């Protein structure tokens, strides 16, 4: 109820203006938002450049940076949120944080550890339909696995939208889908 402390992770394009705009939108709804830079200042215009950088940095290093960014605030009970790559990072952190208040995923999910367990963690996912990175088969098994962990999951699919449809700077942008996703997401945060 009311103000949430949100840790918002960027996509593989890096900490670009669209991520700051998303944080400002959440702040306008009354939340405290932090946007750590997991790429240490690097941003990318193409998927290929972004993929190469992510591979070079490595998943473990990115997770370590995310944990270090979240650790000083986790006692307050964070809502973890993210876009695409950032959503997978947010999911990993939320499932490992007993004090997590919620998980808000845009455009992405992640593998779930066998032993992951949460106490009715509220989870909301916003994803394009179809999405080349989040196939129907994957999402169906992800949903069942998340329920097995004890999460309370809602999935919203946006037919015809591109993968990163909330990012106004990318070709995937879909204004109608983005506005609907934000309206639903801000409503979700108000219930936590």
UniProtKB/TrEMBL annotation:
Domain Dienelactone hydrolase: 6-191
Pfam families xref list: DLH
GO MF term set: hydrolase activity
Taxonomy, superkingdom: Bacteria
Record-linked Gene3D superfamilies: alpha/beta hydrolase (3.40.50.1820)
Keywords attached to this entry: Hydrolase
This protein's name: Dienelactone hydrolase family protein
Organism of provenance: Streptomyces castrisilvae
């Amino acid at each position: 109820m009311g103000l949430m402390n949100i840790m918002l992770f960027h996509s593989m394009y890096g900490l670009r203006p669209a991520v700051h705009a998303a944080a400002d939108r959440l702040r306008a709804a009354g939340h405290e938002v932090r946007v750590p830079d997991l790429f240490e200042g690097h941003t990318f215009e193409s998927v290929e450049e972004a993929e190469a950088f992510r591979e070079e940095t490595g998943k473990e290093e990115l997770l370590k940076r995310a944990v270090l960014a979240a650790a000083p605030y986790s006692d307050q009970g964070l809502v973890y949120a993210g876009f695409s790559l950032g959503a997978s990072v947010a999911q990993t952190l939320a499932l490992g944080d007993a004090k997590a208040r919620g998980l808000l995923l845009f455009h992405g999910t992640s593998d779930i550890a066998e032993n992951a367990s949460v106490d009715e963690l509220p989870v909301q996912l916003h994803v394009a339909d179809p999405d080349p990175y989040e196939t129907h088969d994957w999402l169906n098994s992800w949903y069942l696995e998340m329920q097995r962990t004890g999460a309370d999951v809602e999935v919203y699919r946006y037919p015809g939208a591109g993968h990163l449809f909330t990012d106004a700077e990318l070709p995937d942008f879909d204004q109608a889908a983005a506005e609907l996703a934000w309206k639903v997401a801000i409503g979700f945060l108000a219930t936590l």
